[in-house]
Amino acid sequence: MMTGKIKQLTISLFVLIAIMVSGCATKDLTRQAATTNQNIVVDEKLLNEANAYAEKQVAMVQIDAAAERDNIFMLLAYAVVYKNWQNSDMANNRGYNIGSVLVDENNEVVYWARNSVNVTKNMTQHGEVRLMDCYLATHGPNDLKGYTIYTTLEPCAMCSGMMFLTSMPRTVYGQKDPSFGDAIERLEFDSTSLPGGYPPYPRHVISNGSHLSGRYVLDYYYKVYVSQHQDAHITVFLTTAEAALVFSSALNTLEKYQVKYPENQEVKEKAIAFYNTKVTSSYTKLCPEQ
Ligand SMILES: [Zn+2]
d(Cα 152, Cα 39) in Å, to the nearest integer? Predict the structure, then answer.
């Protein structure tokens, strides 16, 4: 017999995983995910609301081959973060549950990094900063022309600035940050028509939100979280069961995902191989080892 809590969890995960990647889930996939996440319990009614919102958003998007690759790489970024999931004990943590992966122009994942601001006692150590800084230091190129960063949280002003300065053309994020986000849009905003206004920054970076349902589930949950917490911080939200639910299901979803576009099969397999061979489950002092 299932206990009430586990039953609630199983139903919740079933609903979430079923829409995590539109059209890809099978019954086996949902069952497997449910059994590997029994410790994550969330409110079923709220999850149903979040899923309904996500479903509506995802239904509005046509997924072509490039968008499918975006989904694959974003799932990988969520999985990288979940591999070293942090609890709310901020004082003793590595950092926040935020991370990113770097993909080159041949759709090869070449690097990963996670936020490490606490363990380094250095508030600049965001996942994207570590990703860009360490990759350039260890792999040779002077800039990031042709690369894309998939990051689980929308980039802040610091990380966005580095993206402009390294000539990185595009980033995709897995959750909107209503406070520190839109940094790229702000840098590109043309206010010359206003008194004392400025022209846009002289380089262009494309910033896209992911179309994975998990992204919209996170956005929905965070909106509710803000409405319930006077001093809400997105980094604290990212230690909640609701956030963990999305991140924890990413690897399983990626592994079971059946590509719609055959040319993406190899991309998916290589992304999973990267996770299995390159991504560690603990903090790496300078950069991820490659
Ligand atoms: Zn940042």
Answer: 22
pLDDT digits over 230-285, tens only?
Answer: 999 999 999 999 999 999 999 999 999 999 999 999 999 999 999 999 999 998 88
* 248 C-alpha to ligand 1 centroid (Å): 22
Element (H, E) at 33: helix 27-36
DSSP characters over 183-200? HHHHHT---TTSTT--PP
pLDDT, tens digit, for every residue of 48-99?
999 999 999 999 999 999 999 999 999 999 999 999 999 988 778 899 999 9
Q: Is residue 212 within 8 Å of residue 250, measured between CB atoms?
A: no
Q: Alpha-carbon distance 90 to 104, whole Å?
A: 33
Please say if 185 is a catalytic residue. no
Among 68, 128, 154, 188, the active-site one is 128
